Amino acid sequence: MQVIKDELVEIRDKYGDERRSVIEYSGGDVSIEDLIADENVVITISHAGYIKRTNLSEYKTQNRGGVGQKVQEQEIKIS
């Protein structure tokens, strides 16, 4: 353990200098709503109670009279 301390002290003495950056308080109030992106999303709730948020842009748009995507029978869980 003493070897590690000696090496770290040597590195500090060789490369250590005063802090170059300045840390200042910004003074502004930031709420949690400011951190959430304002985008269109789809909220999906499964039968098991899981919740999923997906961007609307990830869904395919259908032309008029579209049939939708086929879902295999084993993918649907009916309770």
List keywords for this structure.
79 residues, alpha+beta, two-stranded antiparallel ribbon, 2 strands
In what range is the share of β-strand residues?
5-15%
Shape annotation: elongated
How many strand elements? 2
Q: What is the rounded distance between the termini?
A: 61 Å
**Number of helical runs?**
2
Q: Which value, in Å, is the CA radius of gyration?
A: 28 Å
**Unreliable stretches:** none
Helix fraction bin: 10-25%
Oligomer state equals single chain
Please give a structural write-up.
- The chain starts with a helix and ends in a 24-residue tail after the last strand.
- The protein is an alpha+beta fold.
- The protein has helices at residues 2-15, 32-35; strands at 41-45, 51-55.
- A two-stranded antiparallel ribbon has the order 1-2.
- The chain is 23% helix and 13% strand.
Summarize the helices and strands and which ones pair or pack.
Layout: H1 2-15, H2 32-35, E1 41-45, E2 51-55
Antiparallel strand pairs: 1-2
